[in-house]
Specification:
single chain; 366 residues; alpha+beta; Elongation Factor Tu (Ef-tu), domain 3; OB fold (Dihydrolipoamide Acetyltransferase, E2P); 6-stranded antiparallel barrel; 5 helices; 28% helix
């Protein structure tokens, strides 16, 4: 039949111009393609297994409508609202350390003491002087009550006694600075110094963390400043715990860090025994979502001069289909999945494997 169609053209006179020749060839091609398709269908009907065996095999996925979310991925960490480094207000040598790692302490509880031997000696000396001053004052007061002696002597004795009392009060306040107390309720963590070691202001003895009020802190690149808002949904993944929770942004910093060009966000973390301060957390902030759309893997999208396209299968027979090229418009993409804004609809059979070897208009098996 193929030769029968070509013979009239080969033996006859050639067309006068190229346009007529091209139109005639196109008409012959269309006729041949129709005849080929008809014969393939007839052969497939007569012997389906043999016809299918000669066709390229592809994998297809039925298009479904599903929600799509785009996330901003950040690395954050667990932080405690009350995680305090405990230090001293004066330098000295530690005489006692009364806590160890893991101890639960209350605010104001004594944690350690610093050597105050010199102050103790000074206090003993002042107490001795105060006894003498009180005795002199009492004697002068008794004489002054009897109008014996001068008022100056009485005032001097009173002033000496009161001056020593004030000095003792001041010294006791100074001695109080040689004791280290818990600044908050919580759990003692990372006891750094031991008895006999030196401590000074700024050098921590330990940390006290209140793990009953935890939060997750992350740094967001400045480019997302217009997208991240208080109240945004956050999915938090803890890689070390193999755990995932949902939370919301409850704080967004108004200041950009000039060094890293980032701003700080925080979200609440429910209480749990598995969490640890400074534990790594992956924060996934939803900055775009479509409740119902077509989503396909990014790898099935191909690019041509006329734009992006995918290949779909139009069923022609049992387990056979015609490959069709469909131009698509992409939306957002995340984690290897792309939102398709136009070109595909629910129920289409997307060629998801073997599409690299499939051609538009070709019959394939699936």
């Amino acid at each position: 039949m193929f030769f029968a169609l070509l013979l009239p053209f080969a033996c006859g006179k050639a067309p006068a111009d190229k346009t007529s020749q091209l139109n005639e060839l196109k008409a012959q091609k269309a006729t041949l393609e129709t005849q080929i398709a008809t014969l393939e269908k007839e052969l497939a009907a007569e012997n389906p297994s043999a016809a299918t065996a000669k066709l390229k095999l592809v994998g297809v996925t039925e298009i479904k409508v599903a929600p799509f979310k785009h996330y901003i991925d950040l690395q954050g960490k667990i932080d405690a609202d009350e995680s305090v480094a405990v230090t001293s207000r004066v330098p000295g040598s530690l005489t006692r350390v009364l806590v160890k790692n893991g101890d639960n302490v209350r605010k104001g509880q004594l944690l350690a003491t610093i050597d105050d031997a010199l102050l103790t000696k000074s206090l003993d000396e002042l107490n001795g002087n105060l006894k003498v001053a009180e005795d002199i004052y009492n004697r002068q007061k008794g004489l002054w009550d009897q109008k014996i002696g001068t008022e100056v002597q009485y005032i001097q004795a009173k002033n000496a006694k009161e001056s020593l009392e004030r000095s003792i009060t001041t010294l006791k306040e100074q001695m109080g600075m040689y004791k280290i107390y818990a600044p908050t309720n919580g759990t003692v963590d990372m006891v750094i110094l031991k008895q006999g070691q030196a401590i000074s202001p700024g050098l921590p003895l330990c940390n006290v963390a209140n793990l009953n009020d935890l939060k997750i802190v992350g740094e967001v690149p400045e480019v997302y400043a217009a997208k991240v808002r208080k109240g945004d949904l956050v999915t938090v993944v803890f890689p070390d715990l193999n755990k995932e929770i949902n939370s919301r942004v409850n704080y967004v910093s108004k200041t950009i860090n000039p060094t890293g060009r980032t701003f700080t966000i925080e979200c609440a973390l429910p209480n749990g025994t598995d969490y640890r301060a400074n534990m790594v957390a992956i924060m996934k902030i939803v900055d775009y979502q479509n409740p119902s759309t077509v989503v396909v893997p990014v790898n099935v999208i191909q690019t041509a001069e006329d734009g992006d396209f995918v290949l779909i299968a139009e069923k022609t027979a049992e387990k056979q289909a015609l490959v069709k090229k469909v131009t698509v418009k992409q939306g957002n993409n995340y984690n290897g999945q792309v939102e398709i804004l136009s070109g595909l609809k629910k129920g289409d059979l997307l060629i998801s494997t073997g599409y690299q070897d499939a051609n538009n208009g070709e019959t394939v098996a699936y």
